[in-house]
Amino acid sequence: MSPNTMKIINDAGHLTVGGCDVVDLAAEFGTPLYLFDEGFIRNRCREYLDEFGKRYPKVEIAYASKAALTGAIARIMDQEGMALDVASAGELYTALQANFPADRIKMHGNFKSDLEMRMAIESGVGRIVVDSLDELDRLNALASEIGQPANLLIRVRPGIDTHTHELIQTGQVDSKFGMGIYGGEAEEAVRRALVGENLVLHGLHCHIGSQLLEIDGFERAVDLMLEFISHLRSEMGWECEDLDLGGGLGIRYTEKDYPPSVTELAEIMSARLLAKLSEHGLPEPRLILEPGRSIVGEAGVTVYSVGVVKQIPDLRTYVSVDGGLSDNPRPALYDAVYEAIVANKADQEPSQWVRVAGKHCETDTLIDDILIQDVEPGDLLAVFATGAYNYAMASNYNRFTRPAVVLCNNGEAALIVKRETLDDIVSHDVIPAHLQ
Ligand code: LLP
Q1: Could you tell me the residue range of the domain that residue 315 belongs to?
Q2: Which of 18, 79, 135, 316 is 20 to 30 A from 229, alpha carbon to alpha carbon?
Q3: Same domain flag for 19 and 42
Q4: Gap from CA of 292 to ligand 1 centroid (Å)
Q5: Separation CA 141–CA 199 (nearest Å)
């Protein structure tokens, strides 16, 4: 679905999401407001499961919950038969509280605290993805203390440079994640895992980067991982049961982005994998993928109220909205570009170029330059493709309250995260006696 196909407009000339009128939702739940189209999310899960499932014999699709996780989203993933990738105690706790089956959870992180490793082992998560030799040794010791073996994958750094923002590249040689193939660290990890008394090694993992708009990086990952698996088999007779190739498929933030479809990814990746397996004479491991952004990104729309329209003569028009850096840090962090429309004038032709500014006490530009409908204070601005890494990365900067999150489906809206209140903002403050 492109940003355009998300633009479904009703008879009132208002934008709709999941069949709900965005103007009504703003009146009911306030702004800024995160909306998710539940049908879109469910369809993407099914697309991944079907497209890979029909091309490769054993597939598990683990939603990367860092993109957006709430109890309700965890329930959707469970209902759709997805597995879940979590990367912190908070994500794991959210999933377990929502009764997500632990055996379908993968625990990630380049520095898992003892608490996180303990939670992972004790709750019985399906796989712990080990990121370093230090962690492997700590995990072995903790598993022995708890008296329960740890089921693990080794995270490999394949040494692949991808074409994406440098902050979201992860598989290159110079990265904090995983253990290198070159230099022998990953091989050493496999050796140690095989002799670790409380460790059960099931396979290997890699994740090369995020918002990838080309498939070649995935193909190189398949090639390198299979060469490595083949090498490990000849060195130590080890058979790889799980091959987790991470997430990373890009999405369409603007009309200029042309990400590969899930079908294209499934076709190319499965074909490459099957060809390389037969080339190396290897048995088929279970294929695990961890898509995040491509499951929820285009399902999300953020709705803001327009507060101020300021014209700087002969230069530009600034439109200030009631959110910004705190609900969407991506433009500031990654120069991310978004598209938007005026939700209550969605049927009108765009007529002016504006810069959309947030309301934080700094230059928090949300959209640098956009052609949009005639916009005035009191209008509602809807920004598209904000489902991934927006709610998840929201902060309380300037002591803003974080927005509510609403799930929209077939014309029904359901609140899934309440808007924070001013009392929430001060609820963790402590004023010690000498300051009272
Ligand atoms: N698996 C692992 C181990 C990951 O580190 C990630 C993302 C994923 C899966 C999911 O990747 P996706 O399918 O969503 O591309 N905050 C940044 C993105 C950071 C991604 C971190 N890891 C952003 O807003 O663009």
Answers
A1: 3-37+297-419
A2: 135
A3: no
A4: 6
A5: 10
